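Please fill in the sequence for the structure shown.

STRUCTURE ENCODING:
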């Protein structure tokens, strides 16, 4: 069998079906779209917005910290600025036309996992990972490109490294200065998601195939 050593574990249900799929002639990752860089209906540039003008990623991708999908902003977010900025640009007029017609812009997806794999932004961003770890230097991109392979091996590699690091150097759970101050002065506690805590990324099949 040409599969890596993590295969021989008890398999049931959906995962067993996946294994059957893999052994039934599937020759490798279906999702390796590394380098995928589709043209978009409006020439929106991250290099201008997130790079030159330093807009925060989550100003537009509001779901990243609290839900499964980071999401793409609605046209009304664009019009916060473009009702004034560059109104005469043909690209901005496409945005204005979509707003007038009450239609979304049909952005082309760059990253997409197959349905059988579960990924959630909130749990990754909440554990302190920055967008660029998985998406590369988006703030330098004129057109978004998939930088990482986003295959199962890629996911597992980080999960296994994290588990190993945590085993050798678990985070200190002692209160930090800000927390002590909060307890003694009534000041607001630091956000719970920012507190050090042990990270437990799954390495078992059912962690990512549910
Ligand atoms: C002004 C709004 C805005 C800001 C700020 C912004 N983005 Fe985006 N982002 C968009 C829009 C619109 C799209 C869809 C069009 C495209 O792919 O360029 C998008 C697409 C993406 C995609 C591709 C989504 C897919 O289809 O797979 C990623 C990844 C992404 N952004 C990450 C980031 C990161 C990281 C930052 C901060 C460095 C950032 N964005 C800042 C508006 C924004
Ligand atoms: C916070 C303000 C802000 C927001 C929000 C914003 N933009 Fe921009 N955008 C700018 C600025 C500033 C420029 C650069 C203008 C210049 O070159 O003089 C720009 C440039 C552009 C251009 C290039 C226009 C040209 O012809 O040079 C496009 C296209 C564009 N934005 C699309 C969008 C889209 C689509 C969204 C929503 C997803 C968006 N922008 C959201 C501020 C914003
Ligand atoms: C641990 C890796 C990882 C991190 C960190 C991460 N992403 Fe993603 N992102 C992914 C994967 C994997 C997908 C494809 C998800 C799918 O198809 O279900 C994706 C898809 C997206 C998409 C398009 C689909 C969606 O979910 O809305 C956007 C936009 C996006 N990411 C933006 C961001 C932004 C902004 C950040 C930082 C705040 C970020 N991502 C952090 C891995 C990551
Ligand atoms: C750069 C490191 C990194 C990469 C790449 C990464 N993860 Fe994670 N993953 C983590 C960390 C850290 C956690 C958080 C563990 C915790 O909170 O205890 C996590 C947690 C998870 C969880 C459990 C929490 C939840 O959301 O249910 C799942 C499932 C998961 N990751 C799936 C994936 C998948 C699928 C991919 C690849 C598309 C991926 N991860 C890529 C680091 C990573
Ligand atoms: C950390 C998350 C994660 C874990 C753990 C994980 N997988 Fe996956 N798996 C993925 C992702 C993401 C994909 C889709 C990308 C790809 O095909 O590489 C995938 C794809 C697959 C595929 C389809 C591959 C193909 O070539 O079509 C099979 C079969 C599979 N996984 C079985 C398993 C089994 C069995 C286990 C346990 C031994 C397991 N996975 C553990 C994330 C994970």
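FILLED IN BY: designer on duty
SEQUENCE:
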């Amino acid at each position: 069998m040409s599969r890596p050593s993590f295969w021989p574990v008890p398999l049931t249900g959906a995962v067993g079906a996946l294994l059957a799929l893999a052994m039934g002639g599937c020759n490798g990752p279906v999702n390796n779209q590394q380098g995928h860089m589709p043209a978009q209906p409006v020439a929106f540039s991250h290099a201008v917005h997130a790079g030159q003008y330093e807009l925060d990623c989550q100003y537009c991708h509001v779901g990243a910290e609290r839900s499964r999908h980071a999401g793409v902003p609605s046209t009304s977010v664009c019009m916060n600025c473009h009702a004034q900025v560059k109104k005469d640009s043909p690209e901005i007029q496409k945005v204005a036309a979509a707003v007038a017609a009450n239609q979304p812009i049909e952005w082309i997806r760059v990253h997409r996992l197959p349905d059988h794999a579960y990924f959630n932004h909130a749990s990754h961003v909440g554990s302190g990972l920055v967008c660029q770890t998985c998406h590369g230097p988006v703030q330098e991109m004129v057109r978004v490109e998939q930088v990482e392979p986003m295959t199962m091996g890629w996911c597992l590699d980080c999960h296994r490294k994290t588990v190993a690091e945590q085993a050798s150097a678990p985070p200190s759970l002692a209160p930090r200065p800000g927390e002590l101050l909060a307890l003694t002065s009534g000041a607001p506690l630091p956000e719970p998601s920012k507190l050090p805590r042990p990270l437990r990324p799954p390495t078992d099949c059912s962690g990512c195939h549910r």
